[in-house]
Design goal:
Number of helices: 11
Helix content: 40-55%
Number of domains: 2
Largest sheet: 6 strands, parallel
Strand order of the largest sheet: 5-4-1-6-7-8
Distance between the termini: 13 Å
Strand content: 5-15%
Structural class: alpha/beta
Order of helices and strands: EEHHHHEHEHEHHEHEHEH
Number of strands: 8
CATH architecture of the largest domain: 3-Layer(aba) Sandwich
Length: 246
């Protein structure tokens, strides 16, 4: 019997961490924090106008799977409002104020650390591939949870331009290890982004279902190799996977 793959790619949101509560109130508070930061630089922006532009951005990236980032969206909106010469530090400060609020709505899953410890002790290589509109935000979350030492890398769509399920996002992640798709396993909660994206490249795909949101038609269209309720079921499942014969 061939040895199991030794490289594991994890999704982040709703896989390794979960949201504490409803996002609507959090986003409202976060938008106010961003606009208040801009106001300190004498730039007026209505929170609702910013949120409306974000929704347009969400719709576009869900179509082309390209991540232009929150930074770009904010800069372009401010340019339209006559602030073409705004400095990078002002934009970054506004985004940091927003993420200082949204980050409070994330908490690490109860079985994340134990799972990562087990994988690392068994000499698995571990990475993160996360769809996210701001790389700094994700890196700060990883630091706050104290889990960075477990990972060989933390790659976001904001840093590599492509969003899962675009194959290029997975290819860029796997290039960190210089391996082919069949040599890796993708673990995530999203049938479309994580599971479908991985399967297109012939990666083994493990679906974590406890916080998964999906449509019935997706269940019939997208077939993970394994479906698990929680991360603690992952290690014995990995032992059942064999690399393809070459």
């Amino acid at each position: 019997m061939n040895a199991p793959p030794r490289h594991i790619l994890f999704d982040l949101g709703e896989t390794l961490m979960r949201s504490r509560g409803d996002w609507d109130a959090i986003h409202e508070q976060a938008d106010r924090a961003l606009t208040e930061s801009l106001r300190q630089s004498r730039i007026h922006l209505e929170p609702q106008r910013f949120r409306t532009r974000l929704h347009e951005y969400y719709e576009q990236r869900d179509k082309d799977f390209q991540e232009t980032t929150y930074h770009f969206v904010l800069r372009e909106l401010l340019k339209e409002l006559g602030h073409a010469d705004i400095t990078e530090s002002v934009i970054r400060s506004a985004l940091d104020a927003m993420y200082a609020v949204t980050q409070t709505n994330w908490e690490i899953e109860d079985d994340t650390v134990e799972t990562l410890q087990g994988l690392k002790s068994a000499n698995y290589h571990i990475g993160i591939l996360s769809n996210a509109g701001d790389d700094k935000d994700v890196q700060q979350i990883i630091e706050s949870f104290g889990i960075r030492p477990f990972f060989d890398f933390v790659l976001t769509s904001a840093a590599c331009f492509y969003r899962k399920p675009h194959p290029r996002a997975f290819e860029i992640a796997l290039a960190h290890w210089s391996i082919t798709p069949p040599e890796a396993v993708m673990v995530g909660d999203s049938l479309e982004a994580d599971i479908s994206g991985a399967k297109r490249l012939n990666m083994t795909a493990i679906w974590i279902t406890r916080r998964a949101k999906f449509k019935d038609k997706d269940m019939h269209r997208i077939k993970p190799d394994f479906s698990l309720r929680k991360l603690s079921e992952l290690f014995p499942t990995l032992e059942r996977i064999s690399l393809p014969r070459i």
